[in-house]
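Q&A log
Question type: sequence-to-structure
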Amino acid sequence: MTGELQSLLAGMDDCFVVGFTGIDANQVTTLRGTFRRRNVTMRVVKNSMACRALERVGREALKSYFSGPCAVALGGDSVVDLAKTLQEVSKKNKNFIVKGGIVEGRIVGPETVEVLSRIPSREALYSQIAGAVIAPVRNVAGAFNALAQRMAGLLEAYRKKLEEGAQAKGAE
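Response status: OK
Response body:
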């Protein structure tokens, strides 16, 4: 088991340690369903085994987060999605606590999970970028449209003036 955990932690750039003291079986089932839908894996680990595995892979700083009943949460589509999922579960269940973890190979505290959870999703960021790129084009198109409408209005006024002038000459 320690070898399996060691290989898991050695190859993982993004994971979080969570505490779950006082969570009953029904809540665990609900958590697993939520995690499954979001492609998140939560593995309950024995603290002593986790600490030995962390020592072997050179991530001793993470050992301080392994106290009480703990699990390692990993997966999701991105570290931001993982953080959002954990933060959402933590808000719904006060006994589920994000203790800290590894983000891009660096040890982070629980405050980092909160910050990551506030980052917009990848799709939202793409939409914002697309909107920023398209906005100037839309503004130029709007300016050309306004210019064309103004020109059409001027031509219409000129046409009416010519018609009125022609009618005035015809009446004489």
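Response note: Strands lie at 15-19, 40-45, 70-75, 97-103, 106-108.
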